[in-house]
Amino acid sequence: MPAISMFYGILILMYFYDDKKHHLPHIHAEYGEYEASIAIEDGAVLSGNLPSSKLKLVQAWIEIHREDLIMNWKLAVSGEPVFKIDPLR
């Protein structure tokens, strides 16, 4: 489960071969004891939860980096190495 970015204490991960459970391109975000799967297309929470303020940051980051996230998703579901994406600043 490669980490692709980290900002404001939020770790963003993308798992290899991870298209079975949610069937949608998504990321995993971790913040302290919180974890959530979040859709790349629209920022919807697919499972889990994050504090509201952190979720808004992740959704803004997804909006900014959607193209890179889709490219990484295609790599990850094929088992290929993914690349790092700039953090939210």
Structure description:
With 89 residues, the protein is α+β, with helices and mostly antiparallel strands. The chain has a domain at 3-7 and 34-83. It contains one helix and five strands. Strands 1-2-3-4-5 form a five-stranded antiparallel beta sheet. Strand 4 (34-39) and strand 5 (45-49) form a beta hairpin. The mean pLDDT is 93. It holds the Pfam family DUF4160.
Question: How are the SSEs ordered, and which strands pair?
Answer:
Elements (H helix, E strand, L loop, with lengths): L2 E5 L2 E4 L12 E6 L2 E6 L5 E5 L2 H26 L12
Antiparallel strand pairs: 1-2, 2-3, 3-4, 4-5
InterPro entries: DUF4160
Protein name: DUF4160 domain-containing protein
Pfam family, one: DUF4160
Structural features:
89 residues, 29% helix, five-stranded antiparallel β-sheet, DUF4160, 5 strands, alpha+beta, DUF4160 domain-containing protein, 1 helix
C-alpha-based Rg, rounded? 12 Å
Q: Terminal Cα separation, in Å?
A: 24 Å
Low-confidence stretches: none
Strand tally: 5
Protein name: DUF4160 domain-containing protein
Brief synopsis:
With 89 residues, this protein is of the alpha+beta class. It has one helix and five strands.
